[in-house]
Amino acid sequence: MFLRLSRLLKATGRDLIVLWYACRIPGTPVMVKLISILLAIYVFSPIDLIPDTLPILGWIDDATLLALCIPALLKLVPQPALLNAREATDRTLSRWTFRRNRS
Predict the structure, then answer these.
(1) How far from chain centre, in Å, is Cα 59?
(2) Which of 81, 60, 66, 65 is nearest to 14 (CA)?
(3) 3-state DSSP helix/strand/coil percent for the chain, to nearest 5?
(4) CA–CA separation, 94 vs 38, rounded Å?
(5) Helix (H) or strand (E) segment spanning residue 55
């Protein structure tokens, strides 16, 4: 279960960065940008459907919402803007990689 959750978080984290760069591109529709802003407000807002004070359930609803909405929003982004956003994400993440074979 934890392995699947960690894979989901890694994929969602990369897609989140792609969505960030896609929203910065002028060719992205305004509706995608607006929904992205509303999603971010909901995730960081203290007002939730399930309060974050409940230890696990409060976080699961936010994670589920992100895991469902981010891929759906990326499908609405035009292909050229999505390719530019993926290239920018790859450049950013390549700077953050850690060397595993340090001797």
Answers:
(1) 15
(2) 66
(3) 75, 0, 25
(4) 29
(5) none
Which residues 6+ apart lie within 8 Å of 67 measured at CB?
8, 12
- At 92 the three-state DSSP class reads helix
pLDDT, tens digit, for every residue of 27-72?
Answer: 999 999 999 999 988 888 777 777 767 777 777 777 888 888 999 9
Distance CA 71, CA 16 (A): 9
Per-residue confidence (pLDDT) for residue 101, from 0 to 100:
44
DSSP 17-52: HHHHHHHHSTTS-HHHHHHHHHHHHHHHSS--SS-T
pTM attached to this predicted model:
0.76
